[in-house]
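To close the section, here is one more complete example, presented without commentary so you can practise reading it yourself. The ligand is S-adenosylmethionine.
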Amino acid sequence: MLIDSYARVVDYLRVSVTERCNFRCQYCMPEKPFSWVPKENLLSFEELFEFMKVAIDEGIKKIRITGGEPLLREDLDKFIKMIYDYEPTIDLAMTTNAFLLKGTAQRLKDAGLKRINVSIDTLKPEVAQAIAGKDVLKNVLEGVEEAVKVGLKVKANMVPMKNMNADEIVDVLEYCKVRGISVRFIEYMENSYAKKEIQGLKSPELLAILREHYSFEDEGFDGSSPSHYYKMEDGYRFGIIEPYADDFCKKCNRIRLTAEGQLIPCLYFDEAMSIAESIKRGDIKGAALVLKEVVRTKPEKNRWGGEDNEISKRAFYETGG
Ligand code: SAM
Ligand code: SF4
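Output:
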């Protein structure tokens, strides 16, 4: 079992299989062209799988594939199947912008994927274009429909922003509700790659908007999920992810792996240790030692909302959120 210095059990690994993305979301990626990590620096799926085995053997019970956009990486279903075949009880999930889901959802499910989180920030084509930098909405919604149709469990993420999509909170919730998709509103997390002008809505503002339309009860947190849940009278649950509150970190059970093999103890901070060399030399014990050290050094909490107003230099497109 992996236990950090604050007695939190770490059993959740998020694996970013690529930092590349077909979107340029304003809250995630820089507008200007920038250079990607060279392809030869990426770990192959076989190498990543070697580390998945180490992590599972050490106590990881949930693996989420993310990116960048994970569906840009060829043969993703084969990687999923490798993990599933090694340990079918692993809770195998993926976070995707859904653009390429249509036509791949069934294959991913057949490979062993159980759940997906899709980003639905808007239902207006022109707003989707403004957020993602290209005309994406049609493909995104078709991808979401397909995922529901093939029987994947689907959750949606929305990052509400002032003067952008804040007026669509209820519309996105309704879109999700009728499809049995639980929506989570994520407070925009400032970082040095995002567009400077973005102003995210904080939890009290979101709740005030939602209270104008619905009655709901505060259900609090659910296990280790960072999401604060609310239940409506008809039983529908939505969540708010509030990184600016300390509660976000108290039950944090996760670490992150980048496509280059950097193991990251916290989404906010720059600190990381590489497992790439150990894995490439077949040094399983070495990789396990790095894993334990990263868990040991996991910080108590992030600094969003901290007094120093420091801005995180960790790129979401590298860590996968
Ligand atoms: N490309 C995939 C997607 O967009 O779902 C997976 C990677 S993306 C980095 C994972 C999640 O991080 C998405 O739900 C996205 O909305 C969220 N995210 C990215 N930047 C963020 C930010 N600055 N604040 C809050 N959430 C952010
Ligand atoms: Fe790409 Fe996801 Fe970042 Fe948007 S949030 S730019 S889809 S990685």
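Once you have examined the tokens, check your reading against these statements. DSSP finds eleven helices and twelve strands in the chain. Residues 12-319 form a domain with the TIM Barrel fold (CATH 3.20.20.70).
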